[in-house]
Each structure stands twice: as structure tokens, then as C-alpha cells.
Amino acid sequence: NIIFLDNIHKSYLFSVLDMNANLKNVYFLNNQGGWQIRFWLGNDYEVIDIENMVIQNCSQYTHPDIFSATPVFLFGAIDDEPYQVTMKNTLIADNVDNTTDYSMSCSAISVSFSIDLNLINCTIGNNYTPGGAGQGQGAALLAGGVGSTFNIVNSIFYGNITDQIYLVNDGPEEPLTMNIYNSLIEGGESNILNPSYWNTLNWLEGNLDDDPLWIGTGDYPYMLQSTSPCIDAGTIDLPPG
Description:
0% of the residues lie in helices and 42% in strands. It is mainly β. 41% of the residues are buried.
């Protein structure tokens, strides 16, 4: 039950290292800086649970000492065995990452190293990043990490620029796997960037490629209209965690 509002910060607004964390009803609104939230794990026992969170209208604060600054969640770990992170009922919308100094940029969620991430009933919409330097890619979800597994369930990725999801890791030794089901992804399976042959993308049952028909106005613009294709399109078959 915490609100982080109208802050200007140099690097991380909220950083958690090597501990379990349970965040519920936490709002990050109109902040400027580097990462809004960083979780960096390395003691073989951490579990992160996030529920009913909003990150909205946040933007990168240009500062010469910030590297790869971006208004997103950053998850990472220093061990080979993945850590468990679950995000439920989370809205990440209308954030802007202006990073252009690196080959890849991200406007919503960035995962580095060994993280098993469940996204359940989440909305990732209308976030912007221009893409990295040269011909680099930019996406709302930058899915990296050795041996990581991503489960995207009952969730929406729509209106994000330049791309929705990008799967990337350095080599075939420990590939990552992404499972998507009962979710709406703008552009469908073909719009998910998966350039490396060793990573696995499982496009499963119940997925949609439509306009989610958000209300678009008022206090809750990302609520669904009564005619939204997402209504009654979800599942109760959720990943463990």
C-alpha cells in the first residue's frame, strides 16, 4: 500500500538485493530516473511475489552516469539455478525509455540471467522505446537469461513501440523457454522476436491478436470494454508459483 509519485532519481528508485520480497498494492507513477524497480538475486532462496502493482507515466532521466537506464522492472540473478518471480494483476503502461546507446532497449520488463518469470493477468500497454544503437531492437519485454522460463498467461501486450516481446540470450548452452497461452499479443506469434535458434517459443492455446478494446478514458483507462475479445478468454490453469 505504497505510492512512489513524482520522484526524480539518478539510478534505481527501488532496489532489492538477495532477499525474499512480497509487493502488493504498490504504485510507481510519474517518476523520472533509471530503473524504477530492480531485483537482483543470489543467495539460493529468494522468491519474488508481486500483485496489484501499477507502473505508469514513468520516463528515463538523462544523466551521464546512468548506464542503460530504463523505466522498467529489472530482474537478474548470479546463479545458474533460476529464481522464481510471479507478477499478478500488474499494469505497466505509458512509460518511455529513450535509451539509444546500447544494442537493445526495453520499456517495461527486462530479465537478465536466471529468472523463471510468471506473468499472470498482466497488462503491458502503450510503452515506448526507440530501439538500441544502430540496428538494435527495442521491446516492452526483453526476455533474457540463461536457463530462464517465461509463462505469460491471461495477459495483454498491445500498443508497445517498437516491439512487444524480444527473446535474447548469449548462447545455446542454457536456452530460455517462453510459454504463452490465453493471452493477447499484438501481431501474434509472428511479431515476437526470436532470432536465436536455441530459444524455444511455445505459442499455445487461447491466444489472440486483436484490439483489446480498453476503455481509454477516466480513472481506469486500461479496463476492458464490454465488447472486448479478452473477456471470458482467460484460463484458470495457471503456472505454479
